Amino acid sequence: MRTNASRRSTGSAAGGVDPKLLALVHLRASRINGCSACVHAGVAGGKRAGDTDERLHNVAAWPEAPFYTDAERAALAPAEAATRLRDGAPGVTDEIWEEADAHRTEEQIGAINLEFAPTTFFNRINRTLEEPAGKAWG
Q1: Helix, strand, coil share of the chain (percent; to 5)
Q2: What is the DSSP letter of 68?
Q3: What is the CA radius of gyration of the chain?
């Protein structure tokens, strides 16, 4: 992982990353993996964090949609690349890491990684168990 210790943390959640961005990362990975329970949770989490329906609904097309900043794209790119391994994608390339590093601290990149990695794990569990969207766990 690249480092960039000189950048300040600008977010307010885990690792200084805005909760809206973490919800987008969760939502995008969950949509890729087809986990309806996690998509539902990602939308709910994004709304709780104050994100808009427009941004939450368009995260599936984040590279082309005009609703995201370059810094947000730099966070969504590694999440997408790592999640799409099953599609034969090359994974998180040096170019993707360099772009992430240009916008985030090492701690923030770690927090984003720790959002999408367990998300893909739970996507697979929920798909295996056929957990429905909107189920109240308790």
Answers
A1: 65, 0, 35
A2: S
A3: 14
Q: 85-133, pLDDT tens digit by residue?
A: 777 778 899 999 999 999 999 999 999 999 999 999 999 998 888 888 8
Which tokens belong to 21?
């961005």
DSSP letters along 73-138, please? HHHHHHHHHHHGGGGT---S-HHHHHHHHHHS-HHHHHHHHHHHHHHHHHHHHHHHHTPPTT----
What pTM was estimated for this model as a whole? 0.83
Q: What are 52-96's pLDDT values in tens digits?
A: 999 999 999 999 999 999 999 999 999 999 998 777 778 899 999
Residue whose structure tokens are 């300040």: 8
Contact between 100 and 78 under an 8 Å Cβ cutoff? The reply is yes
**Which two tokens mark 77?**
């790119």
CA 112/CA 122 separation, integer angstroms: 16
What lies within 8 Å, CB to CB, of 102 at 6+ separation is 4, 74
